[in-house]
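User: Sequence for Flavodoxin domain-containing protein below. Tokens please.
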Amino acid sequence: MKARILVAYASHYGATREIAEFLAAKLRESGFEVDCSAMRELRTIDDYRGVVLGAPFYYGRWPRSARRFLNRFGPALAQRDVAVFATGRIEPTRTESEVRPQLDALLDRYGWLRPFASALFGGRWDPAALRGVDRWMRKLPGSPLHVLPATDLRDWDEIGAWATHVAAALHAAAAQPNSPPPNRSGPLVPARR
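Assistant: Structure tokens for Flavodoxin domain-containing protein:
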């Protein structure tokens, strides 16, 4: 039995979108029907049993499109199998354990969201591609970003292994269609601001 899956992402510069597309391809290889779409373009998620959400975090926050998506689709997401990934580490010297508390704090703002899997992946940093406020922030004298060289910390083997884990969990959930999604955990609680 195939279960339809949505991979929804927010991405400013394309790195998170590329991870989402990679995950969607891996889930298709595992036998799922998968749609991959930017969060801001989605009007409904009614057709999906499972949802994989991906967004970067900048300055300790998710982008506006990700926050709006979670606030809009919260009740529907609480009734589905949900996995979450984030990109946020662009400094080679910072470890996942140093950055992971930021992702956990972001997830805590949405107390009703109980993902069955979450991951933090390295991101891509390209100072030449910066726009708007990001370019301005980089120029601040105290910003560590003005000395950070271009880098890409996405580990595609790690991302692929996480995709395999997500696919196995989604297959297990699809095999028991009458059981509640693994992320369902009681009444919906609105996101804290």
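The domain at 4-170 is CATH 3.40.50.360 (Rossmann fold).
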